[in-house]
Structures are given as C-alpha cells and as structure tokens.
Amino acid sequence: MQQWVFLSAAIVSEVIGTSALKSAEGFTRLWPSLIVVISYSTAFFFLSLTLKTIPVGIAYAIWSGAGIALISLIAWLVFGQKLDAAAIIGIVLIVAGVMVLNVFSNAAPQ
C-alpha cells in the first residue's frame, strides 16, 4: 500500500511542477522556477521510492499516464486550453491503458 502513496505523491508533485512551468517563463521568474525545481525533485524522490516495489515500466506508465490526464485537465481549467475531440479521445485511451495495466496485468503489484 505504501508504494501507491509514494507513486501518488510523485504524480502530484510532477503535476504541480509541470503546471508551474508556464508561469516560470523559461526559468526567468524566480518563484515559479523554484516551484518547478522543488516539485520535480520531490517527484523523482518519490518515484525512486516507488521503484523499490513496483517495476519501473509499470510505475512509469502509471506516473506518466496519470500526469498527462491531470495536466490536460489543469490546462483546460486553469489556462483555458482547448481540448478537441481527438485530444479527449487520446487522453481517455491513456487512462484506459493505465487501468488495463493495473487491473489485468500480472506485472503490476497487488
């Protein structure tokens, strides 16, 4: 169970860092840039803890898939990014892939 808490912390940290990238304006603004660096450092720290018990391929698939879905949602809600039908279908397929991996794959830890 602890590995899922670590993976969730890695995902949330990565999403915070990626969300702050736009505000960092190419690392020319101090505070958003610090948020990016701290968030990514935290994300990789927790991802490394996750890899003690979850295979790297599984952990990375979940981490990146959840991150893509959450960042897309934040981009739509916060930054007003438009998502067309193809983008929404692609995101749904990514989430579905992560779910299939977790529910049906014997490679994913229980």
Q: Please, could you describe this protein's structure?
A:
The chain has one domain. It starts with a helix and ends in a 6-residue tail after the last helix. Helix 1 (2-24) runs antiparallel to helix 2 and helix 3 packs antiparallel against helix 4 (85-104). The model has no long low-confidence stretch (mean pLDDT 93). It is built from 4 helices and no strands. It is 78% helix and 0% strand. It is an all-alpha fold and 110 residues long.
Question: What is this structure's SSE topology?
Answer:
Layout: H1 2-24, H2 30-50, H3 56-77, H4 85-104
Helix pairs in contact: 1-2, 1-3, 3-4
Features:
4 helices; antiporter activity; membrane; mainly alpha; 110 residues; cell membrane; transmembrane helix
Main beta sheet strand tally, sense and closure: none
Category from helices, strands and their pairing: mainly alpha
Q: Percent of residues in beta strands?
A: under 5%
Overall structural domain count: 1
Helix content: over 70%
Any low-confidence stretches, pLDDT <50, length ≥5?
A: none
Rg from Cα = 15 Å
Q: Supply the number of helical segments.
A: 4
Shape: flat
One letter per element, helices H and strands E, the order comes to: HHHH
The number of strands is 0
